[in-house]
Design goal:
Layout (H helix, E strand, L loop, with lengths): L1 H36 L3 H27 L3 H27 L10 H11 L3 H29 L3 H30 L5
């Protein structure tokens, strides 16, 4: 009887330790998955800056669609507004999933640049808008290229890889439009 009781305790202990090891394995796996989904401080900073850049582009493009008489400028502004609104929506969802705060105001220097641009009219406004688009997109492309080589979070990496080609296309089109505006070859 004692021998049977000892064997029963032995097998019960063995079974419990096996279950414990399984749960520990699942816990380690869950922790590993959570860590791979974690967002580093650098990635958080990138997402904040990308959000603000999208907000600036949307606001600047909105002004151009309302103020410009140049069809090329308006078409470019419509594309910028549409593409950056879409990129911002995806980024907002990503930040929400990662429990990160989302900025919803423009940086002070951007507000000042937009106000200065809005004080202009006609071809001066168009040139300033396009110059801002070139400068902003050069910075954005550099920021996204840097992030594409350093980001570890798969969701952030996916966002960067999806948006970077559009930013490069925006920059290319802005540079071509800039050349057109400064050479005088524009459609009205």
């Amino acid at each position: 009887m004692n021998r049977q009781l000892v064997l029963l305790y032995f097998f019960a202990a063995l079974a419990l330790s096996g279950l414990s090891a399984c749960n520990r394995g699942r816990s380690v796996e869950a922790a590993r998955d959570a860590h791979s989904q974690a967002v580093s401080p650098a990635e958080q900073d990138f997402m904040m800056k990308a959000t603000q850049a999208n907000l600036v582009e949307i606001d600047t493009a909105r002004s151009a669609t309302q103020k410009s008489d140049n069809i090329d400028v308006r078409e470019y502004a419509n594309m910028i507004q549409s593409d950056h609104t879409g990129a911002l929506a995806i980024l907002a969802d990503l930040m929400k999933d990662k429990n990160l705060p989302q900025p919803n105001t423009l940086p002070t220097d951007a507000k000042e640049n937009i106000a200065r641009m809005n004080g202009l009219t006609g071809p001066e406004f168009d040139r300033e808008f396009v110059n801002m688009m070139v400068a902003d997109h050069e910075k954005a492309v550099d920021m996204f290229r840097d992030q594409s080589t350093t980001t570890q979070n798969p969701d952030v990496k996916k966002y960067v890889e999806a948006v970077l080609p559009k930013l490069e296309m925006h920059l290319d089109k802005a540079q071509r439009l800039q050349s057109k505006l400064f050479s005088g070859g524009v459609r009205k």
